[in-house]
Amino acid sequence: MKNNTHTITILSTAFITTVALHAQYTNEESTNGHSTSKYLKEASCKIHGAANDLIDYTFEEKNAFSTRMKDKLSEVNMSLDHLNAKIDHAGTATRNEAQPKLDALRTKADQLGKKVDEIKNATASTWDSVKMDSKNSYMELKGKIRRENKWLRDKLIF
């Protein structure tokens, strides 16, 4: 059952990622003429990376999962710092529009930090819930950061 759940999680994530990337790349292709094969190759790499991020940690591997999520949280915070640097170099109107979005992302990152802290207090009976809650929060935040980076990039181009 555990292997089936793990497989379903990976396949679901791969499917959702594929659909999202297809929508994103179809829109980009229509606006800038890049080839679909390039994007399919990139999507395949991203799906493989997402599957690696979803290793099914057991309760006995709680410390390893906690360390992994702390590393992911550090990556998120570095991404937010990088996004903040881009915002600082933007024009006033873009900066004023982007700052509340960045603040919202920082709030989400703080919430993720609390979820990561909860990992150490997980019991065998709450493990699956705590683990999935942390993973889902991370994946959601990662997607939002990606979208805000794209939004800012589009704003800076025009």
Write up this protein.
Helices cover 85% and strands 0% of the residues. The N and C termini lie far apart (51 Å). By secondary structure, the protein is an all-alpha fold. The chain has helices spanning 2-32, 36-53, 62-88, 92-119, 127-157. The chain contains five helices and no strands. The model is unreliable at 24-40 (pLDDT under 50). The chain folds into two domains: 1-56, no CATH class; 59-158, no CATH class.
What is the element layout, followed by pairings?
Layout (H helix, E strand, L loop, with lengths): L1 H31 L3 H18 L8 H27 L3 H28 L7 H31 L1
Helix pairs in contact: 1-2, 3-4, 3-5, 4-5
Report the major sheet.
Answer: none
Poorly predicted ranges: 24-40
Q: Radius of gyration in whole Å, from Cα?
A: 18 Å
The helix content, as a percent range, equals: over 70%
Q: Note the beta-strand portion.
A: under 5%
**Helical segment count:** 5
Number of strands: 0
Indicate the structural class: mainly alpha
> What is the string of helix and strand elements?
HHHHH
Count of domains: 2
- Please tell me the overall pLDDT: 78
The coarse overall form would be elongated
- Distance between the amino and carboxyl termini: 51 Å
